[in-house]
Design brief:
Layout lengths: L20 H19 L7 H13 L5 H8 L9
Helix pairs in contact: 1-2
Length: 81
Amino acid sequence: MERGIIIQPEEAVPGLLIESPWHGVQIERVWRFFKKKVLYNKYYENLAGFRSASIAFFRNIGQYADELASLLSGGFEGYNT
């Protein structure tokens, strides 16, 4: 299963994150945590409400520092973190 496009260094766009397995795992874990905090068992009357909750999550992500630290540490056998 292919998960992304491989970009050669000479074709890279400034500011573009080139996917690696380690970053992919990190992003998946943050995405799952975001869904747990913003989506699960929540009803938003409209898109604006969901958008506000999403922005608030990322603006205040520091309040989840301990939970994210435990979530993002470990489980990376074969990679130096």
